[in-house]
């Protein structure tokens, strides 16, 4: 069954409409400071099931819950002193924490897919914050793309991927501030573990916690965010390419110009900001393959290379 997909520019009216639909049990695409999310009332299991349905997402893959306030967060999860320190340092912002899920939490079971932990994030994007305030409930929201496709950084990406399957997309008219999905860390008694590299770097986290942030253990189902097939363009993708071949759309960086550059100045923040848009663009180009110039592994480069490796791993075309 297909539905009419309405795109509304972000405004008080659009946010009120989104809140109305969410309280009625629908899911709605909204911008965040990382990528567009597909949001539903996290306390309503049927509403959350509609997210899985629209995305075609396996239901063993749990969702991130977005909260508007620290009070709301503490009703859902237990915060250790380390978790409180991280919240203090990076919230609102692009950090997701996997924390012990409270027994008396209002979150629907389907959100956590049976895990004893829950992934929480307090976003900074004004549209998302207004929506959280209007709805007054936590919102479950994965990236607003069909399962296995690239995360969307523009309303038109969402429309291309989920048009006809969701009723409303709020259009921010500009790309998200960061352009990469949030950093995910598990905060445990034994220490803090990096589950997904992102805009907040491992170095920044270590500065706050003082503990070692261990390397991502790829493929472990305890960190299902690490499923390799998560971020893929539809064409073959080659990495660390200095000289691209004729049939490749070459994304440059720094001194390597390419057909388009992630950042001619070699600025990693800029490259992260435009990465998904550039991949979407390369994917839609006439060239049958994509190549990307080498990106240094330092700082934000770790998150950029992580996304590129996943995209390459799953890009058999
Ligand atoms: O920036 C973001 O994080 C975006 C915006 C919309 O907030 N959201 C996002 O959600 O990227 P999603 O569903 O595409 O990725 C969240 C990842 C999933 O792969 C999931 O497996 C993992 O977080 N996750 C959720 N709950 C978890 C838990 N309790 N333990 C480990 N991983 C978890
Ligand atoms: Mg995703």
Question: Care to describe what's here?
Answer:
This protein is of the alpha/beta class and 317 residues long. The protein is built from ten helices and 14 strands. The strands form three sheets. An eight-stranded mixed sheet has the order 2-3-7-4-6-5-9-10, with helices on both faces. A four-stranded parallel sheet has the order 11-14-12-13. The chain has a two-stranded parallel sheet with strand order 1-8. Helix 1 packs across helix 6. About 4% of the residues have low confidence. Threonylcarbamoyladenylate (TXA) binds next to strand 5 and strand 6.
Question: Topology of this structure?
Answer:
Layout: E1 6-9, H1 12-23, E2 28-30, E3 37-41, H2 45-55, E4 64-66, H3 70-76, H4 81-90, E5 95-100, H5 109-112, E6 117-121, H6 126-135, E7 139-140, H7 155-162, E8 168-171, E9 183-188, E10 191-196, H8 202-209, E11 237-238, E12 248-252, E13 260-261, H9 268-284, E14 289-292, H10 301-313
Parallel strand pairs: 1-8, 4-6, 5-9, 11-14, 12-13, 12-14
Antiparallel strand pairs: 2-3, 3-7, 4-7, 5-6, 9-10
Helix pairs in contact: 1-6
The structure holds threonylcarbamoyladenylate and magnesium ion (MG).
Threonylcarbamoyladenylate is lined by residues 32, 34-35, 37, 61-64, 96, 98, 112, 115, 117-119, 121, 141-143, 181-182, 184, 195, 223-225.
């Amino acid at each position: 069954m297909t539905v009419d997909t309405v795109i509304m520019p972000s405004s008080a009216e659009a946010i009120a409409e989104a809140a109305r639909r969410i309280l009625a049990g629908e899911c709605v695409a909204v911008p965040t400071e990382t990528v567009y999310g597909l949001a539903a009332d996290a306390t309503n299991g049927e509403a959350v099931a509609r997210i899985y349905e629209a995305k075609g997402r396996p239901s063993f893959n749990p969702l991130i819950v977005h909260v508007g306030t620290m009070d709301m967060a503490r009703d859902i999860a237990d915060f250790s002193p380390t978790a409180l320190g991280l919240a203090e340092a990076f919230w609102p912002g692009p950090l997701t924490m996997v924390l012990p899920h409270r027994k008396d939490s209002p979150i629907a079971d389907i959100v956590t897919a049976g895990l004893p932990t829950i992934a929480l994030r307090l976003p900074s994007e004004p549209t998302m914050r207004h929506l959280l305030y209007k709805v007054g409930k936590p919102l479950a929201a994965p990236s607003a793309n069909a399962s296995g496709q690239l995360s969307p950084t523009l309303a038109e990406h969402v429309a291309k991927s989920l048009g006809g399957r969701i009723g409303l997309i709020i259009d921010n008219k500009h790309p998200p501030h960061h352009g990469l999905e949030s950093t995910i860390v598990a905060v445990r008694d034994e220490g803090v573990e990096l589950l997904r590299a992102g805009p907040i770097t491992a170095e920044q986290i270590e500065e706050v916690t003082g503990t070692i942030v261990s390397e991502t253990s790829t493929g472990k189902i305890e960190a299902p965010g690490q499923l390799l097939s998560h971020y893929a363009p539809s064409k073959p993708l080659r990495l660390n390419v200095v000289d691209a071949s004729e049939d490749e759309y070459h994304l440059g960086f720094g001194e390597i110009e390419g057909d388009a550059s992630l950042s001619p100045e070699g600025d990693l923040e800029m490259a992260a900001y435009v990465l998904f848009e550039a991949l979407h663009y390369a994917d839609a180009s006439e060239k049958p393959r994509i190549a990307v110039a080498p990106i240094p592994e330092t700082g934000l480069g770790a998150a950029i290379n992580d996304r590129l490796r996943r995209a390459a791993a799953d890009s058999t075309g």
